[in-house]
């Protein structure tokens, strides 16, 4: 293991406090990574090698959103009042507490957060609020800056290094007792931390998939213990791990079972198999087309959701069956119409859209599948007068683009918002009376035991964007599997129905939360050497005699970025105790690595296993 001391010499004096230095060895041991990697995750880039930002301003600058007026607290519902009173009671008696705020979409969780933060500030305690997506930042900044003007700091990856370091120094100097940010904001240098809020706690984005592979929820709980603070997890669709912790008495549940101003929108499931049998083969079913026409005629807004970007998901030659694949990854390439390019979504390799088959020179090429770009094009064709905005990683790559698109839709400069999962959560637009899910089956068939959970969460969250105003709303979900339990439960906004089926499935297979998983991934450019490294690792793991060892076997995405990928899975109860053995195993592997030319990564309870 690398020593902490050389890394400390590269940063500004006094930049890390005692708590952050104490966190380094815990993270390194739990997630099997170097201490230097942990420190680099904690320290802002602009503060390394003595580049300390010394010019502080008491107030943050958030560009066009900085002019938010002071917000007035809303009138609480009885359920909100009970939740706020419980949280405030915990803040009044400092000790580590873990709470789950389980509230349906539109139930007013944000107002509960704001009231609890205010209560903590009045008692000299600081607050940290984590959100899963940068796309949620504009609306959250508006609400938090309105309630706490001049006392808010924002941390996320789209900030420039200078801006991030400036915010870090404002926090450390005490100008900003409220911090709002994405995953890495969990390391913010707050010394009087009293409340940690993780909004949409079920989201995968809270787990960092690169070294150091930490989960913000686990780090937040460590900080809550250190500061004797309250950890508040909020979600309409809690992760199974968080809800199971409530059942086991390790967490306390606060319920918001109904919306503040309106009822949950009715959900209509459209069986696309019936649409095909009746001769309708369009990507928009007849009910969805009729609903869109009606919404536009009333001057209201709609959201169309598809968790795939691009125009076509692959190109198929109908003469020889050839599919154009990335030469680096062997993954089918996606067509992006606006750029007229074929793009690999894993390594970003690009090539021109072929006009003839590269294999047989045939001319019968067909564009298969659909992405958000094609949805946008079809909407423009069916409803030429409609104003359409598309929000995905292609249209939000420039700094400030999230805020610009958000403001355009908020200010009614567009009628229809088309997007991927970044529009599925957090956004609150009262004029959205229709949400259409183009296909609910995208994630169901992935080789991942969490596929059903992700499907339920995503459908429930995107459905919650509809009917938030006095006009009400509806949701139309298109699917080829209307009887699948996660889709059925989502159509009824019924978390418990989903949870009861899914938890029994997990129990039978001993998947989390009933056990732990450690994934060992071996990747190398030479297939034989990679297999040799995997077999060496297998021999090293077998003497542990703990749990069930599976593999080595090809990863679901066997070849990525010129590298062959093999994995071993160790599954068992309470595998945290293996930390020292796994760290020693990593040391031995690194000593033997040069002859194999294969890289080993270790992930504790991975959320993505592709």
- CATH classification, class level of the largest domain: Alpha Beta
Mean pLDDT comes to: 85
Terminal-residue CA separation: 28 Å
The largest sheet is: 7 strands, parallel
Shape: globular
Helix content: 25-40%
- Fraction of residues in β-strands: 15-25%
CATH topology of the largest domain: Rossmann fold
> What CATH architecture label of the largest domain applies?
3-Layer(aba) Sandwich
- What would you report as the Rg, rounded to the nearest angstrom? 25 Å
Main sheet: strand order: 3-4-2-5-6-1-7
Estimated structural class: alpha/beta
- Total of DSSP H or I helical runs spanning 4+ residues: 18
The CATH superfamily of the largest domain is known as P-loop containing nucleotide triphosphate hydrolases
The number of strands is: 22
The domain count comes to 4
Unreliable stretches (pLDDT < 50, length at least 5) are 1-11, 61-69
């Amino acid at each position: 293991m690398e020593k902490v001391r050389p890394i400390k010499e590269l940063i500004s004096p006094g930049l890390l406090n005692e708590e952050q230095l104490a966190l380094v060895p815990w993270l390194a041991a739990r997630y099997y990574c170097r201490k230097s990697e942990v420190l680099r995750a904690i320290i802002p880039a602009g503060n390394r090698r003595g580049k300390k930002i010394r010019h502080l301003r008491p107030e943050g600058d958030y560009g066009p959103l900085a002019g938010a007026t002071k917000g007035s607290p809303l009138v609480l519902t009885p359920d909100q009042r009970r939740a706020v009173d419980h949280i405030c009671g915990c803040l009044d008696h400092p000790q580590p507490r873990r709470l789950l705020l389980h509230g349906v979409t539109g139930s007013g969780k944000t107002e509960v957060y704001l009231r609890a933060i205010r209560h903590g500030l009045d008692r000299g305690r600081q607050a940290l609020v984590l959100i899963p997506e940068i796309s949620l930042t504009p609306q959250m900044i508006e609400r938090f800056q309105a309630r706490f003007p001049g006392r808010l700091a924002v941390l996320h990856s789209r900030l420039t290094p200078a801006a991030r370091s400036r915010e870090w120094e404002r926090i450390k100097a005490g100008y900003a007792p409220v911090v709002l940010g994405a995953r890495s904001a969990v390391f913010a240098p707050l010394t009087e931390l009293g409340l940690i809020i993780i909004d949409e706690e079920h989201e995968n984005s809270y787990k960092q998939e690169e070294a150091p592979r930490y989960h913000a929820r686990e780090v937040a709980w460590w900080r809550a213990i250190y500061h004797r603070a309250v950890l508040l997890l909020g979600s309409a669709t809690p992760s199974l791990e968080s809800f199971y912790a409530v059942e086991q008495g390790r967490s306390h549940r606060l319920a918001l079972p109904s919306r503040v101003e309106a009822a949950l929108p009715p959900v209509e499931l459209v069986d696309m198999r019936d649409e095909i049998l009746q001769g309708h083969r369009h990507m928009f079913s007849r009910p969805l087309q009729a609903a869109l026409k009606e919404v536009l005629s009333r001057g209201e807004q709609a959201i169309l959701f598809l968790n795939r970007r691009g125009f076509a998901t692959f190109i198929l030659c109908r003469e020889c069956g050839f599919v154009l694949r990335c030469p680096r990854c062997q993954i089918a390439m996606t067509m992006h119409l606006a750029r007229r390019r074929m793009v690999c979504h894993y390594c970003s390799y690009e090539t021109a859209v072929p006009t003839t088959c590269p294999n047989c020179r045939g001319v019968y090429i067909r564009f298969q599948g659909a992405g958000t770009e094609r949805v946008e094009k079809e909407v423009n064709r069916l409803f030429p007068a409609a104003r359409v905005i598309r929000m995905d990683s292609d249209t939000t790559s420039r700094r400030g683009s999230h805020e610009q698109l958000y403001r355009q839709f908020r200010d009614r400069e567009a009628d229809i918002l088309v997007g991927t999962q970044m529009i599925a959560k957090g956004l609150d637009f009262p004029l959205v009376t229709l949400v259409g899910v183009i296909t609910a089956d995208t994630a169901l068939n992935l080789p991942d035991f969490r596929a059903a959970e992700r499907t339920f969460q995503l459908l429930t969250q995107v459905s919650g964007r509809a009917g938030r105003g006095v006009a009400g709303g509806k949701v139309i979900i298109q699917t080829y599997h209307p009887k699948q339990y996660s889709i059925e439960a989502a159509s009824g906004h019924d978390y418990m129905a989903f949870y009861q089926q899914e938890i029994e499935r997990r129990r039978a297979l001993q998947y989390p939360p009933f056990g732990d998983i450690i994934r060992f991934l071996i990747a190398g450019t030479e297939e034989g050497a990679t297999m040799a490294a995997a077999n060496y690792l297998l021999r090293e793991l077998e003497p542990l005699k703990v749990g069930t060892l599976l593999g080595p076997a090809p990863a679901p995405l066997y070849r990525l970025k010129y590298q062959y990928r093999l994995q071993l899975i160790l599954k068992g109860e309470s595998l945290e105790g293996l930390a020292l053995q796994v760290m020693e195993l990593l040391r031995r592997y690194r000593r033997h690595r040069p002859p194999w030319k294969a890289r080993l990564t270790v992930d504790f309870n991975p959320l993505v296993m592709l």
